[in-house]
């Protein structure tokens, strides 16, 4: 008997902080995806854009690239979050 992809997929239970499930539901609907597809897409994006951590004890962000990584992350924030972060720095 042939198994479909979902029955072959690895499963993992996640506990969301209060309110996060609703935000994921809304975002998934806006992106025309299921909640599962939205979560997987976001994890894949995060893993693809996160600097590699070496097992030799090196930092996740290579020394000397901190400013570049911060700027990249800042630019991905919503305008409201950018303003909030700048407010914290004042």
From TrEMBL:
GO terms for biological process: regulation of DNA-templated transcription. Gene3D superfamilies: Met repressor-like (1.10.1220.10). One of its GO terms (molecular function) is DNA binding. Keywords: DNA-binding. Transmembrane segments: none annotated. Residues 6-48 form the Arc-like DNA binding domain. This is Arc family DNA-binding protein.
């Amino acid at each position: 008997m042939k198994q479909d992809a979902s029955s072959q997929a690895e499963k993992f239970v996640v506990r969301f902080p209060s309110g996060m499930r609703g935000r994921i539901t809304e975002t998934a609907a806006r992106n025309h995806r299921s909640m599962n597809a939205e979560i997987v897409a976001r994890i894949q994006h995060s893993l693809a854009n996160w600097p590699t951590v070496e097992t030799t004890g090196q930092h996740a962000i290579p020394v000397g690239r901190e400013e570049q990584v911060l700027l990249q992350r800042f630019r991905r924030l919503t305008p409201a979050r950018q303003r909030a972060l700048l407010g914290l720095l004042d």
